Amino acid sequence: MPNSAPLIAAAGELAELGAELAAAPAIGLDTEFMRERTYRAELCLLQAATPRRAVCIDPLGGAPLAALAPALGPDGPLKILHAARQDLEVLWAAIGRVGPVFDTQVAAALAGFPAQVGYAELVRQLLGQELAKAHTRTDWARRPLSPEQIAYALDDVRYLLALRDALLERLDKLGRLHWLEEELRALADPATFTVEPDAAWQRLKGVLSLDPGRQRLARSLAAWRERRAMDSNRPRGWILDDAVLKEIVALVPRSLAALAAIPGLPAGVAQRSGAAILELVRAAAIPDPPPPQPTRGRPDPEVTAMVKRLAELTRAAASDTGISAEVIAPRRELERLAGGARDVAVISGWRRQVVGQELLGALGESA
Question: In which band, very low, low, confident or very high, does the pLDDT at 3 lie, cut at 50, 70 and 90?
Fold first, then answer.
């Protein structure tokens, strides 16, 4: 596959590439990004492959990525990525919605590979090619990129089209192409890549076990932190660490002095944001003194036994289908199912056919 211009940044070259990509039958895509010091990931490199060639696009070199939007958008050719979610999130911010999408990791899981099989391993097993590993920890924000770094980045897209063909052949033989269509629908939903601050509390563990007032406080603190992180483009943990947030919820401070005494709270946070945090405490309307924290007792033996039974059924289905039990139903989902939740993936779609009906039967419900 010739690479006459492996690193593209000029506007004219981008316009030509956009037209070339739009005319391709399919496009392999990958990104390199950094997000250690920012809320939003910084796109450092975009790799694209067609049946004709593979190229790297340099956003940090001033590449006008808008020229690629028609080709990468929903009206363009199929885009093939591996473990696509993070790449699509990064591209959403830089270009807009990318689609339609084929995820080789998702397809591989349905074909019987491990749930999180890596791209290089998939290339090795399906295509017989060994990929270099020397630049897995490269700082992609540094310039200039070496020829070796560019070659490594190009390899990340060079084999995507061939992987798709090989995986489709396997899934067709297994009669699972409609399963794949179902799995890929989530990647076509813009809600998958948009952040709603009022839902940020869902990242925190144990919120639903709190009393109602503390639940309100945890939710409002998480939303406040998310908005501050978004506005300042800083990691949410830099605004307020998870452990400190949970301590505020547990101790319910009602003065600046009490807030400043929270273990692990940086002095600067109390000084700059103390009034805002105390207003959230006040708005949560928690009684003074607050209710005691719930003690975590032993798990319900009946629920524990049911989770074990559901896990056994899932492992049996995994053995029958050759699909990882983690793909069919993670243990956390089985725990929610045993606890009464019914908004779980395992009892819908292809999973319902494979094991969901059986799980509902074990729970004493008609399938």
Answer: very low
Phi/psi-derived region of residue 120, left when phi > 0, alpha when psi is between -120 and 50, beta in every other case: alpha
Q: Is the pLDDT of residue 367 over 70?
A: no
Pair 291, 213: CB distance under 8 Å: yes
294 has pLDDT over 80:
no
- Residue 221 makes CB contacts below 8 A (sequence gap 6+) with 240, 245, 248, 249, 277, 280
Give the C-alpha distances (Å, rounded to integers) separating 106 from 38, 103, 110, 147, 275.
28, 5, 7, 31, 46
For 101, the 3-state DSSP assignment is strand
The pLDDT tens digits for 83-98 are 999 999 999 988 989 9
For each of the domains in the chain, give its residue range(s) and CATH number, in order of start. Answer: 7-193 (3.30.420.10), 197-283 (1.10.150.80), 301-362 (1.10.150.80)
Q: What is the pLDDT of the chain when averaged over all its residues? A: 92
Asked if residues 96 and 88 have their Cβ atoms less than 8 Å apart, the reply is: no
- Residues 361/309, Cβ–Cβ less than 8 Å: no
Element housing 153 (H / E): helix 147-158
Per-residue pLDDT tens digits for 20-70: 999 999 999 999 999 888 998 899 999 999 999 999 999 998 878 999 999
Task: Please report, in angstroms and rounded to a whole number, the separation of the first and last CA atoms in the chain.
Answer: 52
Q: In which band, very low, low, confident or very high, does the pLDDT at 271 lie, cut at 50, 70 and 90?
A: very high
Pairing of strands 7-8, 26-34: unpaired
d(CA 318, CA 296) in angstroms, rounded, equals 33
- Digit-coded pLDDT (tens) for 4-16: 456 898 889 999 9
Determine the Cα angle at 166 with ends 79 and 327, to 5°: 75
Whether residue 224 contacts residue 259, with contact meaning beta carbons closer than 8 Å, is answered with no
